[in-house]
Amino acid sequence: MTEASLAQSIDPDTLALDAADPAVQDVMRDEIVFCLPSTPLDAVAKLMADNALSEIVVMLDRRPVGYLREDDIVERLVAGEVVMTGSDFAMRPPVTELQARDIIRTPPLLVDEHQRVSEAVAVMASHGRDLAVVMHDDETPVGMLTPVEVAAQLARTVRDA
């Protein structure tokens, strides 16, 4: 190895991670919008609409146990199994007997907070998913990644280029 090739191999600019492909923890939404298995589907639909989500994670004891898709709720709505009335979910009892546990899908999609965004997006795409729960080293959920966060990162990358 020549002195020039050695200098290139330890150049901090070539060793640095690609700024256009940051770690998931730098892009993720720091909050996790979730429901419980016992959450009525009308309340789940409201949570999803309020947060512009097409998927929502189902959590139990602070652990992701599954997810729900917008399509599943719409299907139940069309079948007349879910009733939507008003927007005062906090002030009235649920009118729908179906709960998240009745249509839960498993497993939830989990990604590591240190993973590159491109890797997480590839996993999401290969599974046809719109939401990944971001996990810390100690296996606790710390955030979520959706197309909204990915698009915002892409916009920042293009703007800064």
Write the topology of this structure.
Layout: H1 3-9, H2 12-15, E1 34-35, H3 41-50, E2 55-60, E3 63-69, H4 70-78, H5 100-103, E4 110-112, H6 117-126, E5 132-135, E6 141-145, H7 147-160
Parallel strand pairs: 1-2, 4-5
Antiparallel strand pairs: 2-3, 5-6
Describe this structure in words.
The chain is α/β, with parallel strands linked by helices and 161 residues long. The chain has a single domain (19-160), classed as CBS-domain, CATH 3.10.580.10. The chain has seven helices and six strands, in the order ααβαββααβαββα. The protein has helices at residues 3-9, 12-15, 41-50, 70-78, 100-103, 117-126, 147-160; strands at residues 34-35, 55-60, 63-69, 110-112, 132-135, 141-145. The strands form two sheets. The chain has a three-stranded mixed β-sheet. It has a three-stranded mixed β-sheet with strand order 4-5-6. Strand 5 and strand 6 form a beta hairpin. The chain is elongated, with a radius of gyration of 20 Å. Mean pLDDT is 86; it is low at 5-16.
> Which CATH first-tier class would you pick?
Alpha Beta
The assigned structural class equals alpha/beta
Could you name the CATH homologous superfamily? CBS-domain
Low-confidence stretches: 5-16
- The helicity comes to 25-40%
Number of strands: 6
**Beta-strand level of the residues, as a percent range?**
15-25%
CATH architecture identity = Roll
Strand order of the largest sheet: 1-2-3
What do the pLDDT scores average to?
86
What summary fits the major beta sheet? Answer: 3 strands, mixed
Cα distance spanning the termini? 34 Å
